[in-house]
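User: Predict the complex.
Assistant: Input components as received:
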Amino acid sequence: MAAFNPASSRIFPSTFPAKDTPRTWPAEAEPRPATELDDIDALVKNHRPRLLRFVTFSTGDPDLAETIVQDCLLKAYNARASFRGDSSVNTWLTSIAVNLVRDHQRTQKFRFWKQARASAIDVTDVASFIASEESGLEARLIARQKVAALSQIIETLSFNQRTIFLMKFSDEMELSEISAAMKMPVNTVKTHLHRALKAIRNQLGGRS
Amino acid sequence: MTSAECPLTPEELEELDELMIGAARPAVQTHGAGCASCRDRITSLSESIEAYNVASLAWAQARSNTFTRDLSTHTPTRHITAPMARSMATMLLLGAVAGLTAWTHLWNSARPVLDAATPPAIRAFAPETRAQQIARDNAMLEAIDAELTEPESAPPALVHAASSTAPHPASAQDRD
């Protein structure tokens, strides 16, 4: 029986060494230092909201996002021994999440339910979460309008543009990390970002 | 430098996005640092994105706080979402209703309609209705009741035996 090769896994791509790269982590000599990945409660508490935001706005479906985030945390916890610390836990989790979203997107089932989905993001609801310490009622209203407008525009972007935009500007990932997670060259990532920013700027300009 | 004084063409202005992306050429970085118009352009978009990030994270945090599902019991890769579950339940219900309707229709169409024009031969073999069956049962019960309430008479066998032992009037006459 062939041994499991994590480097070939589609779910955990970014932190595994390439197939022929020698392993740098001593297999048994030194135990892996404990990380937050070892504590499932801490993992959920610290990372679930951010992952939920990413997957919700990437898929545009809050209900589906709940399921994918749950899968993501469970897979990460079960595969925590494979985490080598090459990137932050945030980045690693986002990479797993984006692979789960892409896997799900490939299925016919997703396309069908995307057409018939009853669950969509309520941008007004999202905008209502604007920080209340914002100075003055007018400033808060303007901020809410900006958030609602941007949420709507992000929904109109293509999947790649939207996902890469969220990785860069919401999750603050490096271009190289996005490139690894999305399995595309850095220049392609930059092109998607340029297009996303242009679309957002044009549409925001048209609304103001 | 005001926006009217900014010497960049629209194409070059797009290059300013590189400042946000983090891959700007040194010339663009220098211009962005010195041009007020370009700075405003970048700041305006950055502020919108920042507000979006804060609100969307607070929204996700609020959603997570209401989340109570236990990770240990969660089965992965079963992506049945709430709308899917609702739709599946609706489809099951519709299927059940359609099945029941079809079955009722078949049952009714399989039963012959008996009316006055139906030949007696067919009536004889037609499955009786519930009302007919009840009427037949009632008739049978009435017949049993009638038999039970009749005055007691000697069984025919006893009558025959008694008549065979009694002297025949003709033979008595013979003896006389």
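Chain B has a mean pLDDT of 73.
Let me know if you want any component modeled separately.
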